[in-house]
Amino acid sequence: MTQNREIEAKTILSKTVYQNIVKAFPVKADFKQENYYFDTTKSLLKHHKIALRIRIFKDHAEQTLKVPDLRPVQSKFHEVIEINDKLELQQARSLVKQASNDEEITFTGTVGAYLSKHFSTQKYHLLTWSKTERILLNGPENCELTLDATSYPDRFEDYELEIENTDPALIKKVLLMLEKEYNFKQTNSNTNQSKIGRAFAHQD
C-alpha cells in the first residue's frame, strides 16, 4: 500500500503539440495501461469527488482511490490524496471480467478499508474505461513529464501533458517554459480535466 499527495498540472494538448514535445526530450519509459473506473449505481463516489479505478499494466496491476485533499498545500494545480494497493495481474483481470459481466465487486486491501469506513455500501460496478499509452520524459529542469495518448469506448482519442512534482514552483516554471516553446496555453477547457470524467463523457 502507498498513500501520497499528488500535485500536478494537467493540460489537454493538440496531437501536434503532443508529438512535438515527445520528440524533444529523452524518453525514460514508454508503456500501455488499461484504466477501469468504478462507482455505485447512484454515483456515490462521484458525489464526494472520489475516483476509484483498477489499472492494468503488462505485468502488474493496482487499485487506486483518489480522494480530495482536506489540507492542500497549494491552490493552482490539481491536488489529491492517492491511495494505492498492488494487485496480482490475474486477480485484477478476474475482477474486471466479473465487473464487465455487470456483477458487483467488493474492494479489499487499504482501498476497501477506506470505502468501508466512509461509506455503508461496499459493492461497486464497472461504469467506464479507457486505454492509455504513457510516455515518461526527462523534461526541463530535470523535471519528469508524462505524455498520455488515451482512447475511450466511443473511439475518441485525446492527448495530455501531466507535470507531477512535490514542488509547485517547479511545476509552474516548467509549464511556462513548455507553453512558450510549444505555443499552447492552459485554459478552463483544457486544464485539470480528469481521466475518469473524460471516460464518462466518451462512453459508447
Automatic annotation (TrEMBL):
InterPro entries: CYTH-like_dom_sf (IPR033469), CYTH_domain (IPR023577), Uncharacterised_YjbK (IPR009195). CDD domains: CYTH-like_Pase_1. Residues 4-204 form the CYTH domain. Signal peptide: none annotated. It holds the Pfam family CYTH. This is Adenylate cyclase. It comes from Lactobacillus intestinalis DSM 6629.
